[in-house]
Amino acid sequence: MTAHAAVLRRLPSVDEVLKTSAACAAVEQFGRPAAVAAVRSALDETRTALRTGGVVVAADTATADTVAQAALARLVAAAWPAVRPVFNLTGVVLHTNLGRAVLAEAAIEAAVAAMRQAVALEFDLSTGRRGERDSLVRDLLCELTGAEDATVVNNNAAAVLLVLNTLAKGREAVVSRGELIEIGGAFRMPDIMARAGARLVEVGTTNRTHAKDYAEALTERTGLVLKVHTSNYRIEGFTASVPARDLVALAREKNVPLVDDLGSGTLIDLARFGLAHEPTVAEAVAAGADLVTFSGDKLLGGPQAGLVVGRKDLIQKISRNPMKRALRVDKIRLAALEATLKLYRDPDRLADRLPTIRHLARPYDGIAAQARRLCPVLAAALGETFAVAVADCRSQIGSGALPLETLSSAGLSARPCTERGAGRTLDKLAQALRELPVPVVGRVADGALVLDLRCLDDEAAFAQNLAGLAGAADALA
Q1: Which class in CATH covers the domain with range 87-96+359-476?
Q2: What is the model's pLDDT at position 1?
Q3: CB-CB contact of 192 with 243 (8 Å)
């Protein structure tokens, strides 16, 4: 009999494993069917490894307890939610891959309340009859933007799609060639127009478009003129474009709606927080755009949503489009959106209450002081394999907003002490940070792993989380 065969004969049975304290804990926490399946899988993996010459456990340690512990660990790992909180230390405040805007406490409380009980979603409490869900935020949006009416769908791409399908299906949509944007996830304006049933009419050139280009393109076949805010890139040099306010008279003369897609749109002038000015929704409405579309989860700092504000007759037409039902938002997002919008009624305290604005407005000195406090904590966790230091950073706003604007920030850099295999060492460190109880996501730049602390709110929780690196120093070497 081979050594592997002998070990196979000594492996415990499923019933033996299930009698251990670890297996009982697994049954109590995850249920008997899941615990039994995990035990069987652990035993099967051990048998397979032994039969193929692999080494899983020594003969003397392949006990019921060790198998039960392996099964319990498997169940615990599988129980981790797929949508997990992380520490966003990438330096990108509105990181699309990390969920964009962090919601304000008021929005979280409103969303939780909407989840816990029935709400008056499409029920008019004053009449006792069926209501309209847009009415829950319509007045707020009109108040904050100066628009006549408003409607809400599930994101800005849907807002643009719905507007195009309503006003330009089977007709022409005129847009500058320099504004045919592509954003993340292969969202291309020409493709959205095609899906909406509109025929794209490009005017001007990539770098220069003039008012006469629009004038020559407008015919009886035109459904709308679309002005797209190029929020995720800039064309510089020999350029020309036509502001939306300069297209108003032309569009009205031809009786064609002017739609201004602001993309990441903001409800407040960011210059008051030391940032570059980004066109606000109220400015677009005041300039004369018939409709303005923008996002809820970018600069606005709320939940994912697409917002359309503007002329009442056009909003009503959009709301009657059968596609509106397919693109509508649920009670949870509406509750969070309403709470977020209400914060804008008090702009002087917005930075204290809205995480997106707080992170964007956070001063360098405070971030640098935090970095100095956390530097020895990270250094102790990583041992002698890395040189840890306070580093100056340049944060980005993200999600296509102000692409050329960076913010002075500070963070921690971890640089391998040995140049040989430094790239692999950094990859191991990045992976180890992602495997912490609360994953830490940074960025690799200039031969170091950099953790930009601009978005770090809970310093104590982060320091405690780093304790999970204990014992990883040798593996990272």
Answers
A1: alpha beta
A2: 47
A3: no
